[in-house]
Write the structure tokens for this entry.
Amino acid sequence: MLGDLIYEAAGKVVGMRVLDDNGTMEITLDEQGKVFGIECSLTLTSVGKLRPNGMQYSEGHGFLLTKDGDLATLTMSGISIPKGRPPSSSVRGATIFNTQSPKLARLNSVICVFEGEVNEDNSYTIKDWEWK
């Protein structure tokens, strides 16, 4: 069951690198959003592997920094589902955060599920909800 909306952002792919000839790619994302209603930025690098059905499985690591300087790290995994002209896709997955910040401490006790929508220009929106 989905719980509270934890994180909401808009972002853009800022880097991409092909790692091998088997369809493995590394991407770096930059987002601006809100965690618990607090303005923040998030940077994430993930490695994804194309699947025969056109979907892509990715795992990544990143960090979230609030406007007040509070920091959280994160690990994510997800699936990208193509929808139209690449890179248009829907992305679904899970995120686990870790923080030493008292203001963000609730992140240590939740697992989030997310959904995102990627546009042809590599911009996207994303939302993370608490998974209860």
